[in-house]
Amino acid sequence: MLTILGGRGYIGSQYVADYYDPAVGNIVSVNERADYGVHSKDVLYLIQPYQYNEVPGDSNLTVLTRVLENWRNRADSKDGVFNFVSSAKVYGMKDVWANENTLCRPEGFYSNIRFCAEKLITYYCEAYGLAYRILRISNAVGSKAHGTPQQNVLPYLLRRLAAGETIEIQGDGEFYRDYIHVEDCVRAIELVMRHGEVNTIYNIGNGVTYSFIEILKYAAATLQSGTIQFVPQKDVPLSFSVNTSKLQSLGYVPKYTGEALFEALLPR
Fold first, then answer.
1. Could you read off the pLDDT of 188-229 as tens digits, one per residue?
2. What is the CA radius of gyration of the chain?
3. What is the distance between the alpha carbons of residues 112 and 101, in angstroms, rounded to a whole number?
4. 16 and 30 in contact (C-beta within 8 Å)?
């Protein structure tokens, strides 16, 4: 039985679509907006810690604390696991091959508050003798993903290309990231929750990097839509990948790689 917090989001909704079995009721609760209750010993927490609620000053770190308290107060919490979905950005995007023991050097508000949430969970669970897992997602993508110029920019640019627009790329776009399709992402999450060690961290990715501009050029050519314009570079994007050997040791094999991944990202 599993309680999901944040199950209406991009990754959470994919998890529910792929793994909810109404015949056995394996997911007992997918939280509503103001529902912080925990209805099972196992929790999958996907709420982004940096968002703010309607109440001024009430951040999602406050929500996380409430959920942890509600979970701890269950009679069976010591038999369960709190699975927290975080981001590989806590590494600071400076390590070319970051593993779970790499020193985290988060940069900026969003990455710092994610790391803060990780530490909150770690110390909380250690203090009360509870089990946890932290799952650091690399770059979850898919044709239904949304983005902005500031966050998750790849799907934003792909949609502009599909609309026949001209997109501007700084420099040559030759930087690399570990992109994992959202379906593979939730399969990896399920695998870790079923077979992964507790009180530890797992990198969730494919362990393979792809060039940012390679994906955009593939999209423009395949869709026969939009154009790419290169402009002088202001900032230097860093190439980044995560070591996923711990995940692979559980038997993870991605479904979407190479052109199959590129094709699955195209807006239709």
1. 999 999 999 999 999 999 999 999 999 999 999 999 999 999
2. 19
3. 17
4. yes
